[in-house]
Amino acid sequence: MKKLHLIRHAKSSWQEPNLADIDRPLSQRGVRACEVMAPEIVKAGCELETVYCSPASRATSTAQHLSQAVAADTVLRVDRTLYTFDGQRLLAWCRGLDDRLENSVTEVTIIGHNPALTDFCNFISDSELDNIPTCGYVQLWLDCARWQDLSSGSATLKAFLYPKQFK
Questions:
Q1: Which of 8, 130, 151, 159 gives the lowest tally of CB atoms within 10 Å of its CB?
Q2: Is 29 annotated as a binding residue?
C-alpha cells in the first residue's frame, strides 16, 4: 500500500509586498503553526524522512521548521515542478514518480501550495475538502500499486489535520 502525505506551507508574511511570490518568507504565525503541527503530523504516521518540496521560500522554511520541531533527520528534495497551483500538474508529478526508487517509494511527503493540494486531494480521494489551510496536513492511502495509476477515486483520506484543531 502506498501513502501520500500532503502538507500545505505554513502562513507566509506579507510585510514586504514587493517580494516575488516565490520569495515570501514565513510569518511568525507560520513558524508557531509548524511547532504545533510537527508532532501531530508525526503521530498521524508521517515520519518526515524524505520531503519533496516546492522551491518557494515559505515551503522550504515549512519543511525545515517541521523537521526541527520533531528533531527529524529530513532529506529535503526541492523540485521546481512543485511550485504549482494546479492540481492536475501535481497529479502528473506524482504519476511520474519511479516505483523502483528508494525501496519502491511506498510513502511520499509533499509540501506545496493551494489550490493545487486541495484540488488534487479531492480528485484522487473520496474527500470533498473545501480547503487545506496553511500548515494543514492530509494523509492519503492509495489503492494502486504504481504511481502512474493514480486516478480519480484511487485514494482514501485517512487523516486531515490543521493548526486550529490543536490550539
A1: 130
A2: no
